[in-house]
Design brief:
69% of the residues lie in helices and 0% in strands. The chain is mainly α. The chain has one domain.
Length: 98
């Protein structure tokens, strides 16, 4: 999705469906990031960075999903940012599945 430069070959409904799927995925990854943040010590240097990523995710996810390529790409970039945060947090302190 991120490599696309235009929406040729995609219908508006396709972009909307992709954005919706990415929104759901972003919410799941954000919840996992949140679990990791809760497990961090209060003085962890990663805590403020991860909390900022979560705040940005919350802000972006509060926007109603649209049917444009740009919106689907924005959601894809959000998922990528959340996974980066999760990878950083997992390196420091893995959280066991609950």
């Amino acid at each position: 999705m991120l490599a696309r430069e235009d929406a040729s070959g995609l219908r508006a409904g396709d972009c909307g469906q992709i954005a919706l799927l990415l929104t759901g995925h972003a919410r799941i990854v954000a919840a996992e990031v949140s679990r990791h943040v809760e497990a961090l010590s209060k003085d962890s240097k990663l805590r403020p960075v991860a909390e900022q990523v979560l705040q940005e995710a919350e802000r972006r996810l509060s926007v109603t999903s649209q049917t444009t390529l740009a919106h689907a790409q924005q959601r894809a970039r959000l998922v990528r940012a959340l996974y980066r945060a999760l990878d950083q947090l997992d390196k420091v302190q893995p959280v066991s599945p609950s």
